[in-house]
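Notes from hallway chat w/ T.B., transcribed later so I don't forget. T.B. wanted the structure written out for a chain they're using in a teaching module, and asked if we could keep both sequence and structure tokens in one place. Agreed to drop them here.
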Amino acid sequence: MTAQYWLVKCEPHECSFDELKTREKRTGYWRGVRNYQARNLIRDQMAKGDLAFFYHSNCDEPGVAGIAEIVAAGYPDPSQFDKSDRYYDEKSRAEDPRWYSFDVKWKKKLKSFVSLTDLKANTKLEEMKVVQKGQRLSIQPVSAAEWKQVCKMGGITE
């Protein structure tokens, strides 16, 4: 099966791409996705070995900072069962979890940060989900052509 590409959004104050590199095994554990469409992508389509653009969101300059590899995908988000966690969901059950997590590993930093403004200015990326009005999902599929274009904009070949 061919690897798929993703764009995964994270607020830098929660975890920046640079911080991910400093974590044990350079791995981050994605928690707290509470949108059913994003959940379905994680649960049903994302796979170990897929690659993702690590996108800084909800900050002064949103954009793609680097590339991460999906090292574990589609497992129940443990935060939904933890009453002390801000993502606790009292309606979720272990035998029928509502929410799913995935793990990413730092792979490569882009030579040049690719801002949302830059993405929107590139006519080859008009169909990319992140540049479309109303697209706020934190997990988004990326086509192979979009992947290559953003890598090129970031100064790398992948």
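Follow-up for T.B.: The mean pLDDT is 95. Might be a good example for the class.
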